[in-house]
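Hi X.,

You mentioned you wanted examples for the new student's onboarding notes, showing what a folding record looks like when two proteins sit in one file. Here is a clean example. The first protein comes first, with its sequence line followed by its structure tokens.
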Amino acid sequence: MRLTLRAPAKLNLFLEVLGRRPDGYHEIRTVMHPISLYDRLTFRALPSGRVKLEGDTAELGELNLVARAARVLSKRVGRRLGAHVVIRKGIPTGGGLGGGSSDAAATLQALARLHRLDLPPGGLEAAAADVGSDVAFFVSARTALCSGRGERITPLQPAGKLDFVLVDPGVPLSTARVYQALKLALTHHPKDASQFVRTWSRGDLRRIGGSLFNRLERPAFKLAPSLKKLKKRLTHLRVLGTLMSGSGSCVYALVHGAAEARETAARMRRTPSPEGWRVRTVRTADCDLDARQAWTPE
């Protein structure tokens, strides 16, 4: 039996870091949404229990997450779950878009289907939390407020279809390095995620654009000053809002509809620019994944 799944990327629309936890992770509150840019993973069950990985990614961390997902689920069900996994990348690596976590979530879903597992309610989500911080979000792949280290998921109602122009500057950033560069003062007063959630629920695009926030932008911009320049360039195009996603390095602009996305992409195309896409928010991993390549670097 062969199974092909599309693993979507995500954008962080709000991300606040509350502080460092005793386990070494950081406590965060973030609002994430899957978008129409994805990796494609093809799975075939292997009765040997072996997990064989191949594909067009050389990113060891992402491959490790897929293999870890198989190990975690195997341990939970008490038997080895084998699969041959072929990964075709569409999500930039090191861009803050969650490609590795999404691939791991797809692996959990595929193995459960291929091996006909009878899991209890919440079983996949529990396994996902053991695999990695963002993996549980991608199991359901819908708008959510995520807390803890990202594994506690509170679903939110979608604010309709949102259109973005997404830019990959081609400068991958290490999540660990960005967090190491983050300096939270003793007088740090975190931004309230509930305020963003209220704005989100009203569905007013201009207010949403004005409320986009990411605490990790400052340390990321110190590590890679070109990202700050890229964000300024997007902001000058008079879009609804701009933000770096996750720990970077991809930067996006929220725009008012598909026509404005095309116009913004055309303006970016006329300048020396990194790679970019027109993308939309999607509700699940299996619907409307039709990201359009807006431009490629000269």
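Then the second protein repeats the pattern, sequence line and then tokens:
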Amino acid sequence: MRRIKPFRYFEPATIAEAIGILTREGREAYPLAGGTDLLVRMKRGDVRPAALVNLKGLPDLRGIERKKKKDLRIRALTTVRELEQSELIRESHPVLGQAASFLGSPSIRNLATVGGNIGRASPASNLAPSLMILGAKVHIEGPGGSRDLEVGDFFKGPGVGVLSPGELLLSFYIPEMEEGGRAAYLRLGRSEGMDCCLAGVAVRVVFSGMDSGLRAAWVVLAAVGPTPLRARRVEEELLAGSFTEERVSAAARLAMEECLPISDLRASGEYRRQIVGVLVRRALEEVRRSAEEERR
């Protein structure tokens, strides 16, 4: 561990004040949420902020609430543990709670925030794939006003998001799931070792109700590309006919072709590719099994 470089420290009382400080301090200023990732990177010397803007005292950035119907708003400082344990999430979008349960240890989940997990722009994010398959949008405010964009459009590259100096990620909006919809998130990684995932897969399908086919399908892959990847060829295959074992196998093969894994100290690219195929198959089998159990 390196000695942390001295930095200026701010505790704004309002979102507007936080945006003003971040704008004034420029790119060398970092917002501080849970700190589970940023403080580790500071100790390693990976980042050397000139200023930290602590957002923890801003009450408007916490909480999960239902908007119209079953649409949800998740504020950025909501902890991953709160996401995991939320009754609202469990009732309407359980795949998010499923994904949250994979993140680190309970002590990490008690500190880590939803906004921080996405704002880090890690291609191995546990939460991004599930948010993406659910059609979630992220709400951003900054010195130039506010904007909303799809979560998948937030990522520009490994560790690089779209935020400009002074902008803050404030909340996520998640639409109600369609009738007949099923979703699942699976990953491979050592949760007990607080290891980030080697590969992750989120799937959501909407059964047609008329036959054995699907009306819609979303598949997102994590940790096997520079950003979380929308597997569109896999989605097209799933919509091409009946939801059979043969189609599931074809979708798994396409996912292996569509991902872009790298080799590092934790796993080879080829191993990650094989894992993607296994996880896609298992996730699709899980949503099909869930639908069959409800019909009984």
